Hints:
Elements: E1 2-8, H1 15-25, E2 31-35, H2 47-53, H3 57-67, E3 71-76, H4 85-97, E4 105-112, H5 120-129, E5 135-143, H6 146-149, E6 150-151, E7 156-157, H7 160-171
Parallel strand pairs: 1-2, 1-3, 3-4, 4-5
Antiparallel strand pairs: 6-7
Amino acid sequence: MKIIAFAATNHRKSINRELVEYAASLFKKCQGEILDLNDYELPLYGQAKEDEIGHPQLAKDFLAKIASCNGIIISFAEHNGSYTVAYKNIFDWCSRIEPKVFQNKSMVLLATSPGPGGGSNVLAAAVQSAPHFNGVVKASLSIPSFFDTFDREKKQLKHEELNEQFVDAIGHLDHLK
């Protein structure tokens, strides 16, 4: 079984990447791959650009990664209450190639931020929209105040109750282990 995981941002030192790495570490018996959106940098999507260049190979490669897995974990960074441009751009390109971007894969959606909101606005949008793109959302969880709740040395959540919620959310992909 294979899980792909990624932070929905191009920030190289993203706290959402740290969170998704922790999530992926919980899967001991299946193959996991952590993707970096920087490896899928594309021109800004627009109809005129699509008419000019067609469907970029990197977008096709990203869709192939989704096709090759059994489950997806995404941790969303929140920019002004919404998706990051890096995520929205790869998603827009992919949806032009395959409107059912998530290809009926089981998903756990996460978000975190330095503040008490924990990226909850973008997470709500992602949870609501994923089924329209053939994503099967099994669980979602927002982690507030990342720097207060995550132990960066141990690479895990500090608070027992929040960690239990996190493990439970990730456990919804348990059938893939």
